[in-house]
Amino acid sequence: MNIFSALDWQRKIYLSGFSGKLPRVPVDIKQLEESARKNMSPQAFAYIAGGAGCESTMQSNRSDFEKYKIIPRMLRNVGERDTRIELFGQALPSPLLISPIGVLEMVNAEADCAVGRAAARLNMPYIFSNQASRPMEEVAAVMGNSPRWFQLYWSKSKELVASFVKRAEQCGCQAIVVTLDTTMLGWRTRDLDVAYLPFLEGKGIAQYTRDPVFQKLMEEPETSDKPRQSVSMQSIMGLIEMVNNYPGKGFFGKLRSGKPIRAVQKFISTYSNPNTTWNDLSFLRAQTKLPILLKGILHPDDARKALDFGMDGIIVSNHGGRQVDGSISTIEALPGVVEVVNKKIPVLLDSGIRGGADAFKAIALGATAVCIGRPYVYGLTLAGEEGVYEVLRNFMADFELTMGLTGCRNIGEITREMLQTGG
């Protein structure tokens, strides 16, 4: 039984409209982004919506989906449609997951907790961001028993990596997603144009400031020379933000302790490690029995290495076009990765998913599931938890209707033969 029936959701929207009530957030994806832009600060929109360089990777993530055309089949009994999948032994209502996106406090005060509550209502797995605005324990607490995973950035401190993983296990995360493509920040032109990095204000580092290992690391002296910062009204305001964003009460007490400043300094110096190699995965494997997925795989040879190193899943991703300008798109990379993996482990896809047809095409090309990113943040911006819920519910409905109207009753019937290329 489909408790999230697309027809029921569609009917609800129309009947609400008949009573004079419009959706909380635009259904059209372009209007959704534009409405969110008007409600964000320029700095927040640059961080959420921007990509690397000329943003050609972002453009390819979208345009390359159009290379594949769906071929609907007729007169197939689709009166009952089943979008359920099983992933790592857990039954899920649809092949949709929620991608990790950091610093959500820039658009909504409840941030990750609002997303977690919406995810729980849909039983949709939420991949907690390493750069969250709320610590994983708080988000897990509002989600009950609903599924959640944890995204891991590989820190320069192995002790911190181990601590994050241990905490993820303790708060019920069911998988670890290692992001491979952000060992350094890409050349993000929109962020650079507004000269803004939220972490310098102590935003998006809640996983760190609540971590016992990180608290100990904060006591270590910084060895590298820091450029002298000129004092200005802007820098004073940044310092105030930094102190306010540090956990605890009492502004002046936190300021005198120096902890807010040390936390930002230690985060900047340790958050990611460009020296990480494949051999480091053995350390992670020794820390947990949870499934480990590698996020950022685009080349078939890297997919083969993931198998060789005993990884449990792959997420084909280019970080939403935020790291390498001119990179291969995810939908273009997907078939080669799927061929190498040959159904040995799940292959997921993110970057560029903007509707049910995109998810359908990815699954037809061999993806087990897809991850939704920026759109849910736009919903969060406009209407908090309810905005996230409506955006995700729209994706679920759009996917189910695409599946049914194409003549597929379940996920297993979505095959490569449903697509055509060229022309």
Commentary on this structure:
The chain is of the alpha/beta class. The protein folds into 2 domains: 26-188 and 273-421, Alpha-Beta Barrel (TIM Barrel); 198-270, no CATH class. It contains 18 helices and 12 strands. It has an 8-stranded parallel sheet. A two-stranded antiparallel ribbon has the order 1-12. Strands 2-3 form a two-stranded antiparallel ribbon. Helix 6 links the parallel strand 5 (126-128) and strand 6 (148-152). Helix 2 (29-39) runs antiparallel to helix 18, helix 5 runs parallel beside helix 6 (136-143) and helix 5 (111-122) runs parallel beside helix 18 (374-405). It is globular and about 70 Å long. The chain starts with 5 loop residues before the first helix and ends with a strand.
Features:
45% helix; TIM Barrel; two-stranded antiparallel ribbon; 2 domains; 8-stranded parallel beta sheet; 423 residues; alpha/beta
